TrEMBL record:
Residues 165-272 form the HIT domain. It comes from the Bacteria. One of its GO terms (molecular function) is catalytic activity. This is HIT family protein. The lineage of its organism: Bacteria, Pseudomonadati, Bacteroidota, Cytophagia, Cytophagales. It comes from Runella rosea.
Amino acid sequence: MEHQKLNSFCHLTAIPRDKPSFPLRKLIEKKAVLGKILDFGCGFGKDVDFLHQKGFDVQGFDPHYFPQYPSDTFDTILCFYVLNVLFPEEQNTVLMQISSLLKPTGRAYFAVRRDIQKDGFRTHQVHGKPTYQCFVKLPYTSIFLNENTEFYEYKHINQATDNQSKCPFCKPAARLHLLAETPLSYAVLDGYPVAKGHTLIVPKRHVADYFELTFEEQKDLVQLSTFVQKRIKANFQPDGFTTGMNIGKSAGQKFPHASLHLIPRYTGDCKNPSGGIRAILR
């Protein structure tokens, strides 16, 4: 993709260290690093080495330095100073990946810089290459803040206990299998599926009509649906897909909250698939 070409030197911002990072030291003090651990965007892997030495069950992933993508899920995921060097769409991809790798009751911790005054490219002092940096604010729980850095704690939207909403889309049930999440939307396997892998992609803001969502929210739903479609295809091996949404009672919308249905299709799942969506009103 073009933005990846434009931001092809982001890995150069990884810093070689001889001691564990400040965020890791603070989280260990809080006893927040538990269970099976993933350091996502681990750079040279120094935090991974330190955790290994302390007896933690830990794995590192970095697209440039440790490119083997994780095949497991994790209790704790660490992501330190990664988002600050990525474009918004790249940030969203990382957030979707981390949410999909996190166990249902797990926690992810993000550290972002607070000393960036201006977004944009600058020439790396050592390597002489253009590297991008930007200010990042996340809608997750802030657990530490000073003039240089901020830490966030993330948990799946359907594991939140402080959500008092009565809308089943604003407060999805804990039993639902969450596939991925962004700050603006989430995707879960439908609780009443019409096919194996039937998925709902839902904006977090309580809006009934898809066409009343902002462009950013609509774009986010599309990016998330593309991400989870790949997972559904790998897990269920469908022969095709039907996507769509119900807008208004006359279209079958039961709850006043927008949602996109991503329905895997299988050869023989209906007598005559000819016409597809057009056949709904026949």
